[in-house]
Amino acid sequence: MQQRGHWSSNIGFVMAAAGSAIGLGNLWKFPYITYSNEGGAFVLVYLVCILICGLPIMMAEILIGRRAQMSPVGAMRSLVGPRWAWVGALGVLTGFVLLGFYNVVAGWSLRTFVSCLGWSTGGFDATLDLGADFGAMVSNGPLQIGLSFLFMATTVWVVASGVKEGIERAARVLLPMLLAILLLLLFNSFRLQGFAEAMRFIFVPDFGRIDGNGFLEALGHSFFTLSLGMGTMITYGSYMSKEDSVVKASGLVVLLDTLIALLATIIMFSVIFSQPGLREQISKSTAGMLFITLPSVFYTSVPMGALLAPLFYVLVAFAALTSTVSLLEVVVSYLIDEKGMSRARASIASGSGIFALSILCGLSLGAIGGLSDFEMFSPKQGLFNTLDHLVANWLLPIGGLLVTLAAGWFVNQEIAKGELALGAPSFFRFGLWQFFIRYVSPLAVVAILVAVIFFHADFS
Ligand code: PHE
């Protein structure tokens, strides 16, 4: 077996794990699902899920990975029992599918970057219908294939080049930059007339506006955004050194991830609520928010926007890259540890398979009728949205549920205690974690899944 690479320090691990967590889930998905679920109540449910499921499960995954020093399949087998190996395998499969559609959205950030370069040098036409432009872009089949190919190839290259060098170095520089630009945009939105309404929309819950599916989406997204429920954090944890604290690292990653998601949402909504025309445009294509709303903000209301816009979309692309790298890493580390492949071969083989799926997803946004009209959960959803729904709302929560059950009931609790205690802050109580991981987190997941499956829950 090859020697396992390790992160260089605690901050190296936090950066890499935060790099995995922070991505299109925060910048693209969270704002638009908050919009389509009508704000406040959805955000509150999401925050509660982060706290009662996300945080404890993050600790559980990292501790399992670090203790086992193996990829998810081997980790579950050795630490929980041979019968649990398939839970790891389910994670590998989930990662494969997730990356298949995630890649496509990541490709959009490249195209927006190029558009911004054009606007910054050639001038921005404020009358341009960015919504229509976005619609034309996603239904352009060859463009979708080309963009996702570029993204997949870059991801394969980073993963093939090894753990520490590729992932850690990039995350360390780029995350602080992303945060800085978001803070700048936040300050800018204070003076927009829609700011107050945006805050109200996001933070004042109205439970009449959320139904069972909203609960499921909030739960699923709390897993999606923290990269939980499919073994990413088990894999990353396996590269974490014994000197680092699992508890501190988990807390920091969860905090950063939530902060960035909320920032992105406040920024986008402040703009949307300031311009009635934009609101109409957005309701036709909520999923395009990051690529429709924000470019116009940069060019019409931000000081030095022409300079910042291309930079911002480069950072979005990098945020996506640190996430795609972590997704591919799950599949690759499985092939290395379980099938004895070399890192380079494993990266190329799995990357090619995932790219084939990305082609189908990329063509299901209007380019090919049969793929675009494909339906499973809701009418004419298309393959892309169906896979997103399947992974985020079902596979990740189920994977997360299995991890909580494993960590709370089947992993030797002395081992769990020892791993969590190393370097933990003095206020940390193992008993509290155990109470959450044994009862609260699994019950919350089961309650929401059962409500949706059996009662087609309509809570309003
Ligand atoms: N957390 C990432 C994001 O928010 C997506 C992701 C999910 C990455 C699962 C790895 C595993 O964009």
Task: Characterise the protein shown here.
By secondary structure, the chain is mainly α. It has helices at residues 10-21, 24-36, 40-68, 72-79, 85-122, 130-138, 141-160, 163-190, 195-203, 212-225, 232-237, 246-272, 276-284, 289-301, 305-339, 343-362, 369-372, 382-410, 413-421, 430-455. Helix 9 (195-203) packs across helix 12. The longest helix is centred in the first third of the chain and has 38 residues, at 85-122. The model has no long low-confidence stretch (mean pLDDT 90). The site of phenylalanine has 15 residues, from helix 1, helix 2, helix 10 and helix 15.
Q: What topology emerges from the helices and strands here?
A:
Layout (H helix, E strand, L loop, with lengths): L9 H12 L2 H13 L3 H29 L3 H8 L5 H38 L7 H9 L2 H20 L2 H28 L4 H9 L8 H14 L6 H6 L8 H27 L3 H9 L4 H13 L3 H35 L3 H20 L6 H4 L9 H29 L2 H9 L8 H26 L5
Helix pairs in contact: 1-8, 1-12, 1-15, 2-10, 2-12, 3-4, 3-9, 3-10, 3-12, 3-18, 3-19, 3-20, 4-5, 5-7, 5-15, 5-16, 5-18, 7-15, 7-16, 8-12, 8-15, 9-12, 10-18, 10-20, 14-15, 15-16, 18-20
This protein binds phenylalanine.
The site of phenylalanine has 15 residues, from helix 1, helix 2, helix 10 and helix 15.
